[in-house]
Amino acid sequence: MSSSLQQNENMLFIVVISCVATIGGFLFGFDSGVINGTFDGLEKSFQTDDLAGGFNIASMLLGCAVGAFFAGTLADKFGRKALLLVASVFFIISAWGSGIAGSSIEFICYRILGGLAVGAASVMAPAYISEIAPARLRGRLTSIQQFAIIAGLTSAFISNYLLAKQAGLSTEILWMDYEAWRWMFWIELVPAIIFFFVLFFIPESPRFLVMSQQTDKARQVLARLYGKEAVEPLEKEILLSLETQDQKPRLSDLIDKVKGKVRPIVWVGIGLATFQQLVGINVVFYYGAVLWQAVGFSESDALLINIIGASVSIAACLITLKVIDKVGRKPLLTIGSVGMAVTLLTMVVAFANSDYDPATKSLVMGDLGTVALIAANAYVFFFNLSWGPVMWVMLGEMFPNQIRGSGLAVAGLSQWGSNFAITMMFPIMLASIGLAGAYGFYALCAFISIFFVVRFVQETKGRALEDMQG
Q: N or C: where does the chain have the smaller number of CB atoms within 10 Å of the terminal CB?
């Protein structure tokens, strides 16, 4: 866009509606983090064993996988704004239902519904922003989503800590004869309801309006965003992009027509998405309170430690956003893998050399507890410096144009599926092989990921999307 047209941009409006869209990311983070402080309450209320307890935590991720996989197709049919509205309603129902649930099955149904919202929001919020933002600001405005996710996680950790502290324990009665863990879910109603109402004040994506032949509405939105002078050239750009894109990507495109095999780039995408979860990061997010209570910290201290970890995550993401276009994607992934392998191994050594107290069902660690705590926060730092944000950047860049939609769908399904498996297995691993065994597995995966990055991942920094090979 020329400088003369840039002068007519309504930047305040663009930034505001971008921030509205990222409330979906905030709820994504909050919904993922709130479960961290509710494990004891769920176990006590529903009398679950390790397998059922793990499914209570992991059930949301099944909805995430489905929501992320179908979000693009549904948004192309019904609109980006419409899908975000549906997601906001699902967030509200899930937050209320998760807190009021009287059985494990009822709770799981509400969490899966919330997962559908999380999966859709994880895909559609950045997609919406990219379609309303000026090209020169698209990266920065879309990056707000990553901060929103971490802000949501941090807010969930803080509210969990304060509610549990007010009640004494998460399993104790807080207000109106309901336990604190139930109020942890209900707190999410505030941002979810706000999200629902403010969505009515943002426009539909002009790209979707043009694609669905709602020309007059598209021109109105473009004029509101960029000024009347920009409407005609921007409408032509959108039409041209639609003509040169395959609007109905097929999964069969992922198969090499000559060799009859899945394209190598697809396996790399699946590998990136899967390794991001095999290193165990979401065990820290979902089970952080369980982890630190297992090594002797009180519930209150364990919830406070979660807040520290979230703050470390924000600092790491700030660094990544500053250097990713200078250093490149592959070096950051390599540094992250090495850092995670070392810090996870340090935690394993600390856990393995601590004594188990059967009376309290926790490890007696002494000074090793401090070592494990420092190593855990260093691990979180290395993840959010690298695999956390960079994996999504890579997936958005690495696929050739003709298979980008299908490639992202399969990689996203792999990511959420791996997330589900790792989250589901942690309570079982904790009961069978202990913390040292569980984190030994994550350390091994982090170590293997070093070789995966070095051998298979190609740098995408500075390359045009049209130059990507599959």
A: N
Where residue 19 sits, what CATH number does that domain have? Answer: 1.20.1250.20
Number of structural domains in the chain:
2
DSSP character string of 265-329: HHHHHHHHHHHHHHT-HHHHHHHHHHHHHHTT--HHHHHHHHHHHHHHHHHHHHHHHHHHHHH-H
Do 117 and 4 sit in the same domain of this protein? yes
* Structural domain for 169, as ranges: 1-202
Which residues does 195 contact at the CB level (< 8 Å), separation at least 6? 20, 23, 24, 27, 88, 91
- The DSSP call for residue 171 is T
Domain assignment of residue 227, yes or no: no
pTM (whole model) above 0.85: no
* Contact in structure between 131 and 207 (CB atoms under 8 Å): yes
In this structure, what are the phi and psi dihedrals at residue 325, rounded to the nearest 5 degrees? Answer: -85, -5
Measured on CA atoms in the order 310, 315, 320, 321, is the torsion positive or negative? Answer: positive
